[in-house]
Structures are given as structure tokens and as C-alpha cells.
């Protein structure tokens, strides 16, 4: 049996590390093997080094966005586990449909993929406000 | 050892079923357990029935878009396997960063998750052309 609470905790730890710009914790969270990340609006980043570099760059930005995650749902298929959630970005009228994939390695749920996709209603909304300015 | 060619073939079969609006084949491709799908701009759809309904609705549209997939890369972590690729949507200046997740079930690679995220350069591009019209 897969412990869904442990997966939800790993998912929450990812957002906490993001919001605290905690690079050491983000490094611990990501697995060592094949990993990939698709930040909103960007092409895929693959490989541990490139994925961690992408977070380091985000953490260095002078005004960092924070992310709230809502409606977490754990999905399980064989030994694959992923969390679906809605991300709300602070300071932007933007919601994203996100997936976070985890692999159990040496007793720990490590992240192997993150992908966040803008939800269209919010794209349309931010477009309209852009046009009004 | 995971047979990457078999995963690439499963990935190609998904796009072929999509482009041919082959609902029976799409039903065979998707697994029976936990599955999810995030179409571009939409919230997550979960569960086999809802995911297949979403494709049925797309297939019924009078003018259906076709998708070319490029730059397929197979990623493997434990028994989890996913393909990263770039999708080019016909009739739209739109490229998407997509992931397709597969689980080996009874000797077949079945799809457990699909997610396609617009790449910002193309969002910006389609916005500009919209503004010019």
C-alpha cells in the first residue's frame, strides 16, 4: 500500500522550499536520476543539474512570487505516484493546473517531474487587464 | 531494462489516435486505474471516464486540430516512464511542452497522464497577431 499522506507531505515540502527559496531543501527534494520540469510558459528542462539551476535562477529574482497550492489529489498507478493541484501565484491573477511526480527512493518520496500549466480563464483575464493598461 | 522503443511507439500511437479521432484506439491506450489529463488551458480531468469523455468531445468538434509531436525524449525512473515532447498544433502558431506518462500493464504501455503546456513565446506571438487584427 502506498502512503498517500507521505506523498502529500512531500508535495507540501516542495512548495515550502519554493516559497522559502530554500535551495538546499529543493536539492534534497529532487531525485538523482531522470528528472524534468516544465515551468509555466517554458520548454521542458531535463536532468537534475538543469532543473536545480532553473530553481536557483527563480530564487535569485529580486521579487519572487509565492505559490499557494490547493485541491491536492494523490494519484497512484503501480509504483508511480503523482499529485494534481491548483497553484495560485501571489501578485498575479493566475491559476495553474500542476502535477508533481514522486518516486520512492531509499524510503523517501523524491520529485521526478513538475509541470504547471496556466488555466485559460486566468490567461484571458490577465490579457484583458493588459489591454486595458 | 525498459524498452524505450516500445514507449516511443505507445507515445506515437496516442498522437495517431488523436489525429485520426479514433476513439476506440484512444480507449485502448488509456489505463483503467488512476489517470489524469490536463488539456492546454484547462483544469485537470481525472478518472478514465472523464478523460475519455474529454477526448470524445474534442473528436466531435467540427474543425479538429491535428498535432505534430517533435523532439520525443523518454525518461525513466523506477517503473515510471514518461515522454517529453513538443507539440505543434495545426492551424495555430502554437507550440506546447507536453508530457505523456505510461505504465506497463499486462505487457502493454498504457497512458496514465497527459499534460500539454503552451510555451510563452508562442502565447506572446498569438497575442501580438490578435492585437494586429
Task: Give structural notes.
The structure is a homodimer of 133-residue chains. The first copy, chain A, is of the alpha+beta class. Chain A has helices at 4-19, 23-29, 48-60, 120-132; strands at 36-38, 45-46, 67-77, 80-89, 94-105, 108-118. A six-stranded mixed β-sheet of chain A has the order 2-1-6-5-4-3, sandwiched between helices. In chain A, strand 3 and strand 4 (80-89) form a beta hairpin. The first copy, chain A, starts with a helix and ends with a helix. Mean pLDDT of chain A is 90; it is low at 128-133. The interface between A and B is large, with 39 and 39 residues.
Briefly characterize the structure.
The structure is a homodimer of 133-residue chains. Chain A has helices spanning 4-19, 23-29, 48-60, 120-132; strands at residues 36-38, 45-46, 67-77, 80-89, 94-105, 108-118.
